[in-house]
Amino acid sequence: MKTIPAICLLLFCLTAVGQQKIKVHLIATYHMGGTTDALKVDGTKDNILGPERQKQLSALLDILQKKDVEKIYVENTPDKQKFWDSIYTAYYTKKPVTLRNEIFQIGVKLAQRLNIRGGVKCIDWAYDGSRKPGDRLFAEYSAKMNRLCDSLQIGTNDFTVYDNIVLKQLSEFNGNIPKQDLVTVFRNLNSKEYLNKFYYGNVSTYLDRNTEGTGAFWTQYNMMRNVNIYSNIMRDILADRPQSVLVLYGAGHVKALRDLFEAHPLIEVVMFEDYFKE
Fold this sequence. Notes:
Strand order of the largest sheet: 3-2-4-1-5
Order of helices and strands: HEHEHHEHHHHHEHE
Shape: globular
Structural class: alpha/beta
Distance between the termini: 43 Å
Number of strands: 5
């Protein structure tokens, strides 16, 4: 009879282990090394390599280091993996590396602090770099839709009143980034309010004008990258089953990624603000 409680306890433990979720730490960042995007931070004013900014960066890394993640996913395509492997090796062996890019300043430096052997993992997605049949067909569809927009004289700059308001707010926020402490910047950058605004400006604003069906296309076009980023990360997570990972990505992608990760039964999402609740 004494074996029954033991068996029940064993089954309970096995069930608990089976339900253990993988933590995905989602960290929104701005592009420290510059970007072709309309919303960007002036690198001439944001001296990320200067002593004061490096001191602030060290404080930011101290916070991120509190979570013992096993992998760090970054915003670059897999064909750039060898380059970032070489950067990580150089930095890990204390060779001088001078890069403004947030992949190095946060991703590589954090990987070194946490002693992650593989460094950072590139999981971004681009239309022209994919060989999947479905992606190629979507690229053909995109080309046709672009020609339709041209014929209708509809451009991605045909903003609504609300879009103009949001873009102005985002631009003003980015303009103030060089003047603010980095930890403060990242708390604001990762706030629900900021991420919602960026999502609207990046994805859903086009649906406000959709009389010809072109607004839905631009929303699909921008979400196509997000769902493929998510797919790349999830397939890697499901293959290796780490306990905890960190995703460092441009703020314009983070709300979409959060929604996708939160819907997965295996995933527990951890946002930057959660680091301050303990």
